């Protein structure tokens, strides 16, 4: 009966590496740039996930001057502070954040259409 003492390997978990990477808190923080459709041709661009050490109001002021659009900073209970801009400014905002050195290109996710 000692032949039954052979150990059987455990089940293979294909997501073990992904779960291990996600467990590191803040290992890969993304800035999400999204577009929300309002009514008709009107749209709203939202920027979420910037680090808390940045002054959102100063970034918003520069974005508004650069792109000639209106915007605001909204406090969301789940997402924290979110920058909202009028119009489809996804590419403009991502280029601005990269050139200003606020975010690296690898850490920006552009969502929409």
Automatic annotation (TrEMBL):
Coiled-coil boundaries: none
One of the GO BP terms on file: regulation of translation
Organism name: Cryptomeria japonica
PANTHER family referenced in this protein's UniProt entry, alphabetically: EUKARYOTIC TRANSLATION INITIATION FACTOR SUI1
Matching Pfam families: SUI1
Keywords: Initiation factor, Protein biosynthesis, Translation regulation
SUPFAM superfamilies per record: eIF1-like
GO MF entries: mRNA binding; translation initiation factor activity
Gene name in the database record: eIF1
NCBIfam families, per the entry: SUI1_MOF2
Keyword Protein biosynthesis applies: yes
This protein's name: Translation initiation factor 1
Family, similarity comment: Belongs to the SUI1 family.
Residue ranges constituting the SUI1 domain according to the UniProt record: 31-101
Highest rank taxon of the organism: Eukaryota
Role, per record: Probably involved in translation.
């Amino acid at each position: 009966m000692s032949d039954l003492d052979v150990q059987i390997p455990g089940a293979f978990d294909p997501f073990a590496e992904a779960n291990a990477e996600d467990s590191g808190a803040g290992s890969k923080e993304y800035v999400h740039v999204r577009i929300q459709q309002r009514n008709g041709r009107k749209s709203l661009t939202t920027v979420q996930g910037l680090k808390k050490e940045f002054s959102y109001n100063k970034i918003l002021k520069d974005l508004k001057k650069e792109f000639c659009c209106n915007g605001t900073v909204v406090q969301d209970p789940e997402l924290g502070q979110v920058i909202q801009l009028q119009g489809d400014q996804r590419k403009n905002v991502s280029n601005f954040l990269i050139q200003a050195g606020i975010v690296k290109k690898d850490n920006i996710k552009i969502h929409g259409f």
